[in-house]
User: What shape does this take?
Amino acid sequence: MSKKDTFQRIRALELPQQGVLAAYLCERMLPNYQHFHELTEFGEPSVLRGALDAVWDKLAVNKRTDWQRWQEKLEEVTPTEQAYDVLGVFPAIAACTGLSSLLQGIEEKDGASLLDVSKISQGAVSHYLELGEFSHIDDAGLREQAIAEHPLSLYEIEIQQSMLAYLEDSAVIDKALIREVRGIARDEGMSNLGI
Assistant: This one.
């Protein structure tokens, strides 16, 4: 299945399912920010962790949260590519951008913002490979094909589709399911870039 098929399936989900999927994908991007922070000492991983925990709480028990305040905190710890000449800045930015889209989607009950998290996660993998492993390939078509066939790209799509299938088969989004999805993300112990 392609990226496009993945996005169509996400659009077909109910909003609570889209929220769980987006939170799961953000969970997988968080280690990239942590790694960047360890390399550069920039930012504060606890802000991302706190914002994502607030989303999980909202999904599980409909806990009220000041989403705008979380967005402001997130903005303060989002790095810029101009300030850092390391490849890791891009996955760190993607983690922040994905989380920001998740917060917006939860606050505004907006499926398009939740879908964006999937696109950002896949895009982060592609961008990482393009600037790293495949930066030497000048031909855009060959580079794009190499990225699409790379194990990290294939694994990202496979992971998203596996969680999609799980959520499509789950009639009810309840505390138990949310606890299980959080556990799956933690047990994988690996970011979308294999970190």
Q: What stands out?
A: The radius of gyration is 16 Å. The mean pLDDT is 95.
